[in-house]
Amino acid sequence: MDKIKLTGLNFYGYHGVLPAERQMGQEFSVDVSMYLDLQEAGQSDKLEATVNYAEVYAVVKKVVEGQPRKLIESVGEEIAQNILRDFLPVQRVRVTVHKPHAPLPGVFMDASISVVRSRA
Fold first, then answer.
1. Is residue 26 within 8 Å of residue 101, measured between CB atoms?
2. For residue 83, which of 107, 110, 55 has the smallest C-alpha distance?
3. FRET partner for 17 with CA separation of 20 to 30 A, picked from 9, 49, 69, 103?
4. Dihedral of the CA atoms 43, 81, 55, 67 (nearest 10)?
5. Helices H / strands E in the chain, number of each
């Protein structure tokens, strides 16, 4: 199966368990991999034969900048479900949500989750 990948979509959101996270907010980064058949798009060179990246970006932005969630797992789940709902050619999606400024008591590069969801 073919893949469209969007990497490093950066937004500011208010997700977290701690009250300070939900009040002050922080940066989040999202990677999306969508698995679908791209043969028709490759042969026809027509946008309507694939998934419009700008529309996917808008879906991710709406979720990350939208309603605060306690868990980034919830953020990833909502993004994945919305992509499967809104983009019918997508058969499977992997969403990774990065929280580089998670409140951990030590030095670290990134805290992230990944969810993989498929069309039933």
1. yes
2. 55
3. 9
4. -170
5. 4, 4
Q: What is the DSSP letter of 16?
A: -
Is it the case that residue 95 has pLDDT exceeding 90? yes
**How far is residue 80 CA from its own chain's centroid?**
7
pTM of the model: 0.95
Set 61, 62, 70, 99: catalytic member: 99
Active site residue 99: yes
For the chain, list the domains and their CATH numbers: 2-118 (3.30.1130.10)
Q: Which of 31, 18, 116, 113 shows the shortest CA–CA distance to 70?
A: 18
C-alpha closest to that of 76 among 23, 112, 27: 112
User: 3-class SS at 37?
Assistant: coil
95, two tokens:
């969403």
Which amino acid would we find at residue 2? Answer: D
DSSP 33-73: EEEE--HHHHHH--GGGS--HHHHHHHHHHHHTSS--S-HH
CA distance 41 to 58: 21
For residue 15, the one-letter residue type is H
